Amino acid sequence: MKNNWLRKTIRSFEPYVVPEIREHTVINANESPYNIFDFPKVKEDFLARLAKTPSYHYPDPFAEELRAALAKYVGCKADEVLVGNGGDEIISLIMNTFLDPGDTLLTHTPTFDIYGIDAEVLGAKVITVPDLDGYRRDRDAFLAKIKEVQPKVTVLCNPNNPTGELLPLDYVEALLKAADNLVVIDEAYLEFAGAPSIITKLSEYDNLIVIRTLSKAFGLAGCRVGYGVAQKEVIDALGLTKLVYNLNILSQDAALAAMDYADEILAHNVPPTIAARQRFCEVLAEVPNLTVYPSATNFVLVRVPDGPAMVEALHQADICVRSYKAADLKNCLRITITTDDVAQKVAAVMKEEAAKDA
Length: 358
Ligand SMILES: *Cc1c(COP(=O)(O)O)cnc(C)c1O
Hints:
The structure is a single chain. The chain is globular, with a radius of gyration of 21 Å. It is α/β, with parallel strands linked by helices and 358 residues long. Helix 5 (139-149) runs parallel beside helix 6 and helix 9 packs parallel to helix 11 (340-356). The chain has helices spanning 40-51, 64-74, 87-98, 114-121, 139-149, 169-178, 232-239, 249-260, 262-285, 307-316, 340-356; strands spanning 25-26, 81-85, 104-109, 125-130, 153-157, 182-186, 208-213, 225-230, 291-292, 299-303, 319-320, 322-323, 332-336. The chain has two domains: 19-36 and 264-355, Alpha-Beta Complex (Aspartate Aminotransferase, domain 1); 49-260, 3-Layer(aba) Sandwich (Aspartate Aminotransferase, domain 2), CATH 3.40.640. The strands form three sheets. A seven-stranded mixed sheet has the order 2-8-7-6-5-3-4, with helices on both faces. Bound molecules: pyridoxal-5'-phosphate (PLP). The site of pyridoxal-5'-phosphate has 15 residues, from helix 3 and strand 7.
């Protein structure tokens, strides 16, 4: 294949290599340790739906039953929800719908890579505002940047992946008020934050798009169900370029079963994760040469003296965590919090390894 067959915007892209995972404790992707099919009622509900699902029919293009269930869950109207093949599809749809080549995407750094990648594919320009010390976002600089450039699309990940920081709703509202164009708030981890969603203010902002997912707190990462929430006109616009049958029937059935028992699933999955996160942070906070950044999510970012050595020590203990190449995340590891047992095992390994550098 000739390199110039590729569209110009992607010729310098490196292939996305997923390293082979040999460890048994895999806590590198913020997955839940809980399987919805282990809840007997959810499994029964799913199987009952499956029994009534003919394989030969195309799925409902807008997953009407599911969008109604998700709307009820977040507290908006069904026509204010668009369901996608993971939150990743919603991000991609947003960029496809609103960015022309040369347009500007504004976000902060470090954050989720996908926003910038999708924008670059489209030939848009990505501007990032770096965090202050301690991975606290530079709120004033970000707000000022919106006013200065009026980017076509602004993205704020809240709480942020990979730093875990949650910003309050009044700040999010200040961004929405400052922007003439769209502001995307990625709330993939909101269920772990114990804070209200900006969806509560949806009726006031025609430029707001919220990204949510069932991959994290609900433990449906394998089913690929995410959704966007915005006023109807924006949702209709996102539907313009969507693949017609973007969400398969099996995923719709699984997501519907999860929504039927949303309260039970969250009550089961979230409090133990938060308790395990707190204990993990408390233990590591006492280790002199580790820096633990406060998190409102199901993961914790930790700065260690020697990143590769710590990754190796965890690997020796059969644990796979997320590390980074980016300069602003040097020697940082992102630890997904699953159960308390696992978190305490990880903490013990990290404490022992950090002591070697003392
Ligand atoms: C996990 C995640 C998503 C969405 O993931 P999907 O599995 O595609 O739903 C979106 N944003 C952030 C920041 C995430 O970490």
